[in-house]
Request: fold
Amino acid sequence: MPNAMRPAMHPDLAEVLFSGEQIQRRVRSLAGEIKAAYGDGEFTIVSLINGAVMFTADLMREIDNPVRLDCIRVSSYGHQTKSIGTPQIVHSLTLDIRQRHVLLIDDILDTGKTLQLVSRLIQDLSPASLRTCVLLDKKGRREVPIEANFVGFEIPDKFVIGYGLDFAERYRNLPCIGVLRPDRQTTAGWVSG
Ligand code: IMP
Ligand code: MG
Reply:
């Protein structure tokens, strides 16, 4: 794209890893991989909110299988850029997933603690099957042995924002995914509320 037509990079980004167009292309091909695994059958999508909202919404629209949707909210990082302690379930499932095929979706696989916690919760509810899908995978940061069945992009150990991913609840609405500038990894000076 000529420079004049390129949208300006958000000033709090150090670099853009994936543009909105690159994300959409990968989401479409991921949907193809998922369709190949499920055939025409029905499955239940379980999305980890808030981070996976954009990814889930875009991915679902590329899939024409009959699907059901439910969400789980897991406690977040707070105002940190590194996982601290153990994640907790803040809000659990509403749908019955017993004997159902479940696709668990998250924005990013980091230490693996969140996906492990939620996978165990789902397994305990006796689904017919469980597969996992993450848009981003920070492979180098894993603390528990877990991998996702479907991965959008592998990324280095950098704190990223945009396309649903936040720092202290900000930046989820950026259409691209980029690295947050180190000097912006603080909430000092923010208006609260
Ligand atoms: P894990 O439990 O350490 O694997 O962390 C997974 C969760 O941490 C994700 O659902 C994200 O909400 C959050 N997270 C991890 N890395 C990042 C990042 O680089 N930017 C924003 N959120 C992140
Ligand atoms: Mg999350």
